[in-house]
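Example record

One chain of 1244 residues, shown exactly as stored in the release files.
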Amino acid sequence: MDPNIKLLADELHKRFDDLDLKWEQRLLDAELRLGARIDNLGERHQVRIDGLEAQHGERLNLVDSLLVYQGDRIDRAHNLSALHDERLSRLEGAALAFDDWCPRLEALIDDIKWEMHKCASAGERLAAERPSSGRGILPLPKSALERPPAPNYYADGPNGHYLPPHNRDDGFGLVFTISHHPVKGAYNPPYPPPPPPPNLVTARWSSPQFGAGSSGKLPKLQFPSFDGDNPKLWVSRCEDYFDLYHVDPQLWVRVAAMHFSGAAARWSMSVESRLRSASWSQFGQLLLERFGRNQQEQLIRQLYRFSQTGSVQDYIDSFVSLVDQLVAYGPNTDPLYYTTRFIDGLRPDIRAAVLIQRPKDLDSACTLALLQEEVSAQASRREFRKTDPGGGWKPAVRGPSPLPLPPGVDKQVPTAADKTSPEQVRSNADKFSALRAYRRAKGLCDRCAEKWHPGHRCAASIQLHVVEELFELFQQDEAVSPPSSPPHSSEHVCLALSAAAVSGSASARTLKLIGFLQSRQLKILVDSSSSSSFLGETIARDLSGVSQLVQPVAVQVANGAQIWCDSVIPNAVWSVHNYEFTTDLRIIPLQHYDLIVGMDWLESFSPMNVHWRHKWMQIPYQGSVVLIQGEDAVPPAKVLVQVCNATWEQQLSSVSNSVPPEISALLSEYTPLFAPVDGLPLVRGCEHSIPLIPGAKPVSVRPYRYPPALKTEIEQQVQDLLSKGLIQPSSSPFSSPMLLVKKKDGSWRPVVDYRYLNALTIRGKFPIPVFDELMDELAGSSWFSSLDLNSGFHQIRLKPGEEPKTAFQTHFGHYEFRVMSFGLCGAPGTFQGAMNTTLQPLLRKCVLVFFDDILIYSKSYDEHVRDIRAVLELLSKDKWQIKLSKCSFAQRQLAYLGHVISAEGISTDQSKVDAVSAWPVPTNAKELRGFLGLAGYYRKFVRHFAILARPLSDLLKKHALFIWTPDHQAAFDALKMALSSAPVLAMPDFSRPFCIETDACNSGVGAVLLQQGHPLAYISKPLEPVWSTAIVQGYSSDPHALDLITRLSVDPSSVPHFSLSGGLLRYKGLPLSSGKNCILVVVDKFTKYGHFIALAHPFTAASVATVFFDHIYRLHGLPESIVSDRDRVFTAHFWKELFRLAGVSLRMSSSYHPQTDGQTERVNQCLETFLRCYIHACPSRWSKWLGSAEYWYNTSFHSAIGRSPFEALYGYSPRSLGVSSNDVREHPDLSDWLKDKELMNRLL
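Predicted structure tokens for this chain:
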């Protein structure tokens, strides 16, 4: 090698070695510096963490102290509130008692004082009179010349006359006093009343002066005391006393104050300084201001609220007492005011009679009220009549007859004086004999009516029921015939009521129906023998719109009696078979029917076709003829065929007269389609089968119990089915019960309860049409017709061999169907498939089928006639039978499946909307669910339906309490308003574009489907919490947002639940496992048995109490005492009050001293050790190991009790599972589960 190159290579090697040494030194220095910086940072972080932990501990201590202080304050507040409520309730009760007691006591005291005053006045008058014999009771007063001179202070008057020794004037002129009418209780107020003088007393009277100069002797009088009650009367009594005894006016205040007691005495002490310098008039004003404030207002309020609650006499006495007190304050009050208030407070029946008389004063009103009460009492004893010998019901006169009208008023109302006595009345001896015979037959004593036995002795006093029996016995035959209307009455014998309407018996010219009036179901009788329409008064009480007649009207009953009608519901709207009618309904007492429809209604629909024997009628209704079918009996089989033929021929003739000629001719051409169902239907290849699951055993269910009225209906229905050949007697081992379901037209449909059979049936999957999809086919149509099959299910036969499965039982036999019956789970699919097969060529062209409801739609009238012909041709080909009474032809607007369809679109059925509007406020979840179900049927018509109904839907959630609040009422009313104003939805045209408008808010989302600006449907949905979470998650998955989050520096000390200690990252508490993050540990003090219950924080005292009762109480009952720490749950008022009422003693451990409850803390250590050992690899699954931990602890040997807690509690050791996964061959899930258990047992 070239020496130069070698030297150069050596030089390079040397330089490289130097560089390596330098870099190694630099790296070593960098590592040292980095290590020092890391140590420095670790120490700084540790110091910071320690400081934060110390601050956190101090804050926790402060929070605990605040919680304890807050709990004490809350307890004190609760105690104070309870004490306040208790005192308030006592004060309210005392106030009510005082308000009730004070007026009565005042009236009593005033009456006593008034009587005493009258006695004193009488004594004074007797003393002042001169007897005719020359000698009086008292000596004659001396003349003026013989009287001794008056004291100096009396001689200051003009001309030697003394001034009055008081500050009041003597009473001169007329003296008005309260006088009473001779009629007891009546009051005649004094009018015209005198003007009130300016002094405290409204009237004074002159009395002879007794004293030193008087020749008479003054009787000893007691000075009146005052306790704060009625200061006006007390002041008047004091002045009378001072006048009689000539007390110095300067001493009046002091003398009067000496006789204060009670509240008045306490008040006088507080105003003693003012009373010393007060004059008598000032003293009286002070008394009135203190003890008489608002007394007149209270009396006026009592008068305004005063009304009769007992007899008229009691009402008069109380009213007059109240008026007497008011007159003392305002004698100028118009007497007409008191008269009007008196009449307004009377009972309604008495008030009406008194008002008719128009009394001029209070005295007349009192007299009329007393007389009317007497008349009412006499009439009420005749209100209830006994049944006549013929068994017919004898109506009574409704209510008492009013008093005679005053002069000048036409007498058009019958009076009590028109009544006549009965022709025959039994003697008293016969009545007593009948009473004794009746009692002996009942085994009663014939004297006292008590239970008779040997040694029986009658009571010394007469029992009340004996008097009542005698009264009834004497009154039962004293029924007076009702008054007859005067000859000049405008409605004399104009109204009539038939015997069938009164007695409820069957009649040849009546028709029974079921209808509705103001959402109330009615039992209706169409009666051609009754002149007018009548409504029972029992039903009328709950209805609105009742008005009183100006003059009562007499109703003549067929048995000769009369009933008086005094009220009516004008233009009442009632419905039958969904047809509405308007009639004036007069209200009378009815027993057997709710509504009698008479000739006034029948004449308004004449001419009509009526078949009284078979109980149906055809009437003109809104341009068409409708059939109303009654509920009466079914004729025998042979006659039934002839009658049915005549019936449907008449129906066909009537319908033909009400439709256009083209359709009438078409119906006549297909007459056999409208014939009644008779015999078995045609075999069409769509027979119904009932496939059962393999191994199914025959179903046998006992028949239900029926009321007697339905038993007759069931017998008739079964006899009808037998006569038609639709059922046959059976000996099948299958048996299901039969029941009746009422149709819309009021007739009954026999239905068999096949629920047990359906549970064993393999269900088919034939698609059932959806209403919205059906309506989508009607775009552009303007003519509509509907057909309804006659008992459509019974027009499909059963497959041979399936008949025994349909067997049913009644109370009198065992039968089976030969045709498809109602109630079978696969019947709707079979029927829909049969109809689709028959009308397949026309489906979605001009025909829609929803079970037995067939809709024919067309764009023009000529096309509609052709479509009807095509549909009738297909139905005639397969021999289907149509019920003509339920068909409608060539209509521009038609009701179909709860909706009204027309060329303009689809709208709601008004009858359904009325039912929603009349729905009462729900009181429970079931009623609310029914309302939402009915309203939800029209949800596509209501904008934001789900948002409006959200408050109501929340009440139906699981575990939700049903508490009706104003928010729920507002939502309830909003839904009703929205449905009542629902728009008409247009038909969709799929050849044109659609438009969707959406909307959203915090509570929900909504949308509307539009076409050319017309709404087609509304949809809405409330926002659930999971939707909000999905929105948040959607934003959190944004990559740009995630990139920004990763750039943020996180302070290690701000990460919750984690701490760095000794180089180890520690987690405080338990990780979340199946939604749980803490454990409730309960240990028995005696047996050491423990329970470990997973909880989710945060929790409340109520939730912990629920867990305690679900896991501890159900196994061990209530403990005598509970030792716990001072967690806010155990110091809560809920927890303390619950166990205080349960009789459990609560003991709290000392703060910051866990050794107080050392047993539980020791069990916590065992549990923590177990979880650390066995779930360190999967810490989030600790909740699944909690049961194993509890089993391990309770079955382990405990040194304190010398055995396991399980054995100490139950007395025996538990058995092991003893099953291995190797024993399982056919169930892999069971094998996996056993392997997990074996793994856990090996770990244990």
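Notes: Confidence is low (pLDDT under 50) at residues 130-215, 382-429, 460-493, 633-650.
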